[in-house]
Amino acid sequence: AKQWQGVLREYADRLNISDATPIVTLGEGGTPLIPAPALSARTGARVFVKFEGMNPTGSFKDRGMTMAISKALEHGAKAVICASTGNTSASAAAYATHAGITAAVLVPEGKIAMGKLSQAIAHNAQLLQVRGNFDDCLDIARDLAANYPVHLVNSVNPDRIEGQKTAAFEVVEVLGDAPDIHIVPVGNAGNYTAYSRGYREEADRGATNRLPRMFGFQAAGSAPIVLGHIVKDPDTIASAIRIGNPASWELALAAREETDGYFGAIDDAKILEAHRILSAEVGVFVEPASAISVAGLLERAEAGQIPAGATVVLTVTGHGLKDPSWALRTADGSDVQPTIVAADTTEVASVLGLTGA
Ligand code: F0G
Fold first, then answer.
1. ipTM above 0.85, yes or no
2. pLDDT in tens, 154-211
3. Pairing mode, if any, of strands 79-83 and 102-108?
4. What's the rounded Cα separation, in Å, for the pair 65 and 71?
5. What are the sequence ranges of the domains in the chain?
6. Who contacts 187 (Cβ-Cβ below 8 Å, separation ≥6)?
7. Is 154 annotated as a binding residue?
8. Which one of 17, 86, 181, 242 is most buried, by most CB atoms within 10 A?
9. Residues near ligand 1 with C-beta < 6 Å?
């Protein structure tokens, strides 16, 4: 069987690359679009989950990073830099080291998930924890890229958005058309922008009959786009989207306008509730930021804003193993304590409630 070639080779004719572009790939993209009957039953819509945790480093960032690192190499870069809430740093570190160049990553001190920190270290990044938040890290990364010989691979680099738009191509390929509604978590709003562009291009080439309405959700404590102003001290348990001044703010507003889209805010309790529903009813394990897509769907359905039978795609952006501790947290804030039993079949059967043979 033919192996999936990664998004640059699979979509070479629809990306800004040429024979001069050295392709750096870990086989990203080609992620599953999973029907979610449990969510369809709860909402009356036809719901699918685009599981981006299945990418090589466990998040959607790999789609943008294969492009950004390949173009950086084409331009002769020897070192790349990014600011990150965790996933971008993990991805930049993996793709840079695969390409034989250096990655420096700036992360907010104490505010990124352990799995992501481990990845960046494992992939040999120069990782600095900055005493500040993500927005401070991005300011510094931009300054450094403007004044020193390092290439910026945050989503303000247009190559990132280019690579990430391929996720929309995959959805269209599977569904045979665009969905009615597409829902994504929003931090910098780069991915919201990328999907909008991907669907626009599909419509322009006649592959689809409609543009999906793009719905984006921010955590209530970090919701600058919803509030209409910068949030100085953003806060949420969804550390991936703890961002107060989104880099792609203007592009995202334009995309909302174009697609009759929507931005909403979801509080942390609802994010964790959605996290449990997705894990326990659908069988898909994600990090908290990703669960906001599910929470957003349920909120919009409750508000009567999801038409019966509408096709809805939820992007879940990062794998649950990146930040697994939330799965053990119960609604009252304590941790689940798995039952301990003796190494004895009769006792195990009894505790499991198994009777007879
Ligand atoms: N979901 C996850 C798991 C993320 O890591 C991010 C962004 C988003 C959603 C939001 O995407 O920024 O394009 O709106 N993470 C960045 C990072 C900021 O550094 O890993 P966005």
1. yes
2. 999 999 999 999 999 999 999 999 999 999 999 999 999 999 999 999 999 999 999 9
3. parallel
4. 10
5. 7-58+171-328, 61-159
6. 85, 218, 222, 240, 241, 242, 243, 246, 289
7. no
8. 86
9. 59, 61, 84-88, 155, 185-192, 240-241, 287, 289-290, 317-318
Q: Per this entry, what is the length of the chain?
A: 357
Which residues does 138 contact at the CB level (< 8 Å), separation at least 6? 83, 154, 156, 247
CATH number of 61-159: 3.40.50.1100
pLDDT, one tens digit per residue, over 130-149 is: 999 999 999 999 999 999 99
Cα 56 from Cα 101, distance rounded (Å): 18
Using alpha carbons only, what angle is made at residue 84 by residues 79 and 85, rounded to the nearest 5 degrees? 160
Atom of ligand 1 nearest to the CA of 322: 3
And the tokens for 121? 């270290």
188 is in an annotated binding site: yes
Task: Give 132 Cα–ligand 1 centroid separation in angstroms.
Answer: 18
Distance 198 CA to ligand 1 centre (A): 18
Residue closest by Cα to atom 15 of ligand 1: 240
| Domain 7-58+171-328: CATH architecture, name and number where available | 3-Layer(aba) Sandwich (3.40)
Dist. CA 200–CA 272, nearest whole Å: 32
Q: Is 76 annotated to bind ligand?
A: no
Identify any residues that bridge with 151 across adjacent strands, giving them in sequence order.
80
Cα 240 to ligand 1 centroid, rounded to whole Å: 5
295/297 Cα distance (integer angstroms): 5
The C-alpha atoms of residue 324 and residue 283 are separated, in whole angstroms, by 15
